[in-house]
Amino acid sequence: MINLHKQTIVKVLPVIVLLFAAACQRSNDESPPAQTSASTPSQNTSEAPADRWLGRWQGVEGTYLVISKRDDSYAIEIANLDGAKTYKGLAVDDHIEFKRGDKVEYIRAGTGKDTGMKYLENEKNCLVIKAGSEGYCRR
Fold first, then answer.
1. Kind of pairing, strands 83-92 and 73-80?
2. Which residues partner with 95 through β-bridges?
3. What residues are paired with 70 via a beta bridge?
4. Is 79 within 8 Å of 93 (Cβ atoms)?
5. N or C, where is the chain less crowded by C-beta within 10 Å?
């Protein structure tokens, strides 16, 4: 009887380990993404990471994001299905912060997968505001 239990444990243990590893990976997927090449600091240390994000980034269904430099801040133009709006943003570490309504939002570098948007999932150079609804990439 004891040998039967040992054999069962030996057969089931690898499955338990795989399930545990998958659960840990799922938990890691919910954490902020690691820095990608889009957010890696350049050789010029005086350049803020956000300076490399200047220009137009394309979203889905005609949406877009345009980042322009204004002295020590950024003009953030976001166009969605309701039209375009512009916000003032400030570079903070590896992201840009801006206020939309009463909420502080963040623009951060990521991949198409980080955007949470199927149409962009294969892209490599992207910016994310809200995973699943606000992601923009350069193709």
1. antiparallel
2. 92, 108
3. 73
4. no
5. N
Residue type, 111: T
Give tens-digit pLDDT for 64-87: 999 999 989 999 999 999 999 999
Strand, helix or coil for residue 130: strand
Cα–Cα dist 96/82, whole Å: 23
Q: What is the pLDDT at residue 3?
A: 55
Question: Looking at the predicted structure, is the pLDDT value of residue 119 above 80?
Answer: yes
Mean pLDDT (whole number) for 88-96: 96
DSSP letters, 53-79, are: G-EEEE-STT-EEEEEEETTEEEEEEE
Binned at pLDDT 50, 70 and 90, residue 48 comes out as confident
> What's the rounded Cα separation, in Å, for the pair 20 and 18?
5
What the block records as the tokens of 111 is 């991949």
Contact indicator for 10, 2 with CB cutoff of 8 Å: no
